[in-house]
UniProtKB/TrEMBL annotation, chains A, B, C, D:
Keyword NADP: yes
SMART domains attached to this UniProt entry: Semialdhyde_dh (SM00859)
Enzyme Commission identifier(s): 1.2.1.38
Top-level division of the source organism's lineage: Bacteria
Subcellular location: Cytoplasm
Family per similarity comment: Belongs to the NAGSA dehydrogenase family. Type 1 subfamily.
Enzyme kind, highest EC tier: oxidoreductase
Keyword entries, A-Z: Amino-acid biosynthesis, Arginine biosynthesis, Cytoplasm, NADP, Oxidoreductase
HAMAP family per UniProt: ArgC_type1
Name of the protein this chain belongs to: N-acetyl-gamma-glutamyl-phosphate reductase
Biological processes annotated in GO: L-arginine biosynthetic process
Organism: Sulfurimonas paralvinellae
Length: 331, 331, 331, 331
């Protein structure tokens, strides 16, 4: 099965290449970025001797000619211009941007006017633990954001125990690769090393995505991301008020007993044990009516690229674990 | 004024030496650790050419002979054996351990039987923003823990606005120096670098200290510390439910308008801007009824040694800012 | 083909497991450490859900019963006690310790008396670029040290150009995982983070291994390792005096044109592009008669475990690249 | 004595402010950058509550009006446009750029045409260990580069022992702050963290400065800088061939016995013990005819700003140690 990548320059593009060159069934038949005229190992020297394919200037006709399915690793607001003609030409799409993750009104409030309302009607949100069946017949998948993935997977098993109208608090910590390759104050080594700070507290645009998928009022979701001096990794520390007497860890294990890419841990989870993999590791601790949930993922993998390949597997009728890395970057 | 340090081997002992050799009024007349027979620059090579004083084997009579005031930078449970005879001999004591921070019953529940109940009756908790007047006449000061310092300073201005019986959530992040010089799994570079995790979630023994000093029920304090790949620094991200309509930043500024060592920031605070200083930098953001407070300190300075010297300044009738570092380790 | 690992607790043991559970032809049939009675995911939690095999207490008869070939990831001086009986029982051995890397006299000078002189006579030094043919029929392979691997691969192409009796200078930088899991001052996060220093300058015991394999006088090899705040990675910066007019990069490319695991770079090499792989990336620059060679490897992979699996591939008649990671931990 | 800083935005400007606000005799009377219209704590938030002075748009007349001496922390090639009129107006200048460090011909080969040849004739190179007497009467001081400072101080005591026409090898490691605040690929956290690489090997323009001040042929100086994942710090590992039988450490101690800011160490030196100070820590090891010298400084302090204040002290008739930090950023 021929697949392609548009947006090969960034970190998520690199992760897609790393998986697809080793995938048992997908053939990486087309790679593009906005300029073209280069090779993938020129963009990412670590691929020298491994994959030295040409990188084209992105073109819808070329994609449709070469690929049954394409991964779009493009900036928010620019992906939708590709999705519309690609779906029209019958190419399946996994879109890693935010463009199809939200209902129209919420998207337009937090991003910009949407230019492809039609495809919004049938898009499937690419979190297999929520929409596995729908993904199997999807033509367009909106790959979740990294923060929502870690937060939603941590919260899902406990939403029925939550006391209504109590705040959901998500104190998230992310590695710097989440900010992308772009140069900026917050990615300058000197500003990040030996440092740690919150940014956009209570105002980050991933909050509406979390609220929408959990089906709770946006006002209840209190989301504060922190930047930490780590290259890759994400840990969401989540606090909710619950009612009733129950064994939180048992409930967590039961909820995910059939999910290959969620691991429940009896000890607090960390970033390194999931680095380089699609695993989401989750830990829970209960004290009175308060639940502390720690949910760890690799922001570039489960938070983006490996989840995208899982979605592609499902869309193409393959086993969802096929070609998905499970060996962590440890030590 | 002659002062001494008992416990010069560790990081807080080093920080005390660094301040006291430059202090305008205190004379560092005595330095000891548990073995003696060395010099301070042998223990801490960075002091070579700066301070090369002898380090004695700790001895109560020698302390009393040389010092008006002594700093005890000793492990929990061992400090009280020094405090009792020192107070009896008329030496003022700033104790950096946990031994006198808590009421008897709480201390014995979380630590061990207390062997100096008498002095517990008159000890002053060394947080100047809470007990400045009492500190001026104190003979024995219990220097606060690092986590309680950052949490309490962040919470104090807003306790009157808090809705009763709602959880106080403190998601704290600390640098590795907080774990001390002792070798352990969690201080091994490979386990910490590019990693991040919670430890003792909801069960850390700093929680009762926070609850006790704020005057709230221990059950309401939900404290989760995280270890981060940073040498020094502490950030407490605090979430509480409040009522009423008020300007949170204005309230914060008003509360600390007379405190030289608290800085209110309109932007999220970070670890580096306070590293090496006694400042506590605080930021607040309100969203509906939820308050997010970020409180940053240097865990070894405001969280231990520089706060101890501030307390000594007050006890000896000096200006509390005398000899206290205010120039941060930036960049 | 059934293979085993003795010494599964450490970092090199973990790397072996990570490769062998994915190897197309090797079956990981036996895992042991010095205590046994555990599982591999208990020792290395990142393997949970991936490999949860039992870990036995190491036993020569059990190894011989289950394995055609065994990897020994044991401390120097203790490996030889296993090698002798294993070879006698017909088990092939890849020894990752230093025990068989050196001629008897040099080994005994730098380590201890050798208790298996017999097998020293036929051991093959496991650097495929030097001894590929011999490795194909080897029964016992001494896997090279990490520093010698990076230094020798950098120097080999240029030894014929070197001016006799001029110093060979190897300024090496290694990540902290090279010091192993053992707790020590130099692996304490606070001592390594934001720091860098040489250790055992001109006196490290890897120097005789380098001299011996290059066939030069030990006195000519000046080797200074530095510890750097990096988890995995090794860069050797090498300086030699050469004669004659030649294109150094062309010579380097020609030398390694048939070696799949050496990449020649026209830009200075770095640690990250080889992290997690068996590649050795080499760069050379000539200025007058001085040659600067930079040689980068992953200290745990090409410097230990992946090179061991390459050697096992050769010993068992397989393609040397089979099951060897080539996708780097980037970013 | 009134002094000023032009170029307050960068890291070296910040370090100058940090020292000058605490200096016993210098009054910081003027601060400027290229835009002005801001405050120093707006540029450097860590200074809030410590120094909140106005920052002016740099102007020669204003400098001359307010200052007896000025520090120029400006980019190479732009500083000389300020020096010429300032010297003409009788203002003493410590120039932290490269503009006056080299003889005319060498400067113009490596930088650009020089527009102030007149002042080149009387400039003093600001390395007190070489030119202390000349500095006392200097009107214009060229503050040395960071790499040359560490390399020259390491080499000076041994130049008389060096075998003529043998290569001087300087393998230098620098923290990222040396690259300045400017955003670039090599300062992006993701590219530096867990990584290490050489840059401009054998071709860096600090090499001619080293050769010129040591009085050796430029061809003999082989200088290779490496970028390391550290914020501040510089270690030069130096290798030279010597003749004669001598005690290298004794020679080193003798050479610097009267220099307050050089510390000789019997153990390999590191970056942290000098961080935040003006110390240069030096270690030497001899093996046959080869000398290994390790020389550590803080690149922003001894490599720039604190050396500049030492020079100013000398120019103004003060003790050279006055107001110079000697307490390291440890841990």
């Amino acid at each position: 099965m021929n697949v392609g990548i548009v947006g090969a320059t960034g970190y998520t593009g690199l992760e897609l290449v790393k998986m697809l060159v080793k995938h048992p069934r997908f053939q990486l038949a087309y790679i593009a970025n906005s300029e073209g005229d280069t090779t993938i190992n020129e963009l990412h020297p670590s691929l020298s001797g491994v994959c030295e394919d040409k990188v084209e200037k992105a073109d819808v006709d070329a994609i449709a000619k070469h690929c049954e399915l394409v991964f779009l690793a493009l900036p928010h607001k620019t992906a939708m211009a590709y999705v519309k003609p690609l779906i029209a030409k019958g190419v399946k799409v996994v879109d890693l941007s935010a463009d199809y993750r939200l209902p129209l009104d919420i998207y337009e409030e937090f991003y910009c006017p949407h230019t492809d309302v039609e495809n919004l009607s049938h898009v499937v949100y690419g979190l297999p633990e929520l929409f596995r069946q729908e993904l199997k017949s999807a033509k367009l998948v909106a790959n979740p954001g990294c923060f929502p993935t870690s937060a939603i997977l941590g919260l899902l098993p406990f939403m029925s125990k939550r006391v209504a109208d109590t705040p959901i608090i998500i104190d998230a910590k992310t590695g710097v690769s989440g900010a992308g390759k772009k140069l900026s104050e917050v990615t300058h080594f000197v500003n990040v090393n030996d440092n740690l700070f919150a940014y956009n507290p209570l105002m980050h645009r991933h909050a509406p995505e979390i609220a929408n998928k959990l089906g709770v009022d946006f006002e209840m979701v209190n989301f504060v991301p922190h930047l930490v001096p780590v290259t890759r990794g994400m840990l969401s520390s989540i606090y909710i008020t619950v009612e009733g007497d129950f064994d939180a860890e048992a409930l967590l294990r039961e909820h995910y007993k059939n999910d290959a890419h969620v691991r429940v841990s009896s000890k607090p989870v960390d970033m390194k044990n999931v680095a380089g993999t699609n695993f989401c590791d989750i830990y829970v601790q209960k004290k009175g009516n308060l639940l502390f949930i720690a949910s760890a993922i690799d922001n570039l993998m489960r938070g983006a690229s490996s989840q995208a390949v899982v979605n592609a597997n499902l869309m193409m009728g393959l086993d969802e674990t096929m070609g998905i890395p499970d060996i962590a970057y440890v030590p």
